[in-house]
Amino acid sequence: MERIGREEAGGLEAALAACPLFRGMEDLDGFLAGEGVRLWRYEKSELLFEQGQIPRYLWILLGGKVEVGNYSPEGRRQVVAHFSSPGEVFGEVFFYLDRAAYEHYALCLQNVEVLALPREGAAFWPPLLGENMLRILAQKAYFLNKKLSILSGGSLRQKIARTMLAHAMEGAAMHREDLADFLGVSRPALSRVVMELLEEGALAKKGRGLAVADREALARMAQ
Question: Residue 88 class from Cβ within 10 Å (0-12 exposed, 13-18 middle, 19+ buried)?
Answer without folding.
Answer: buried
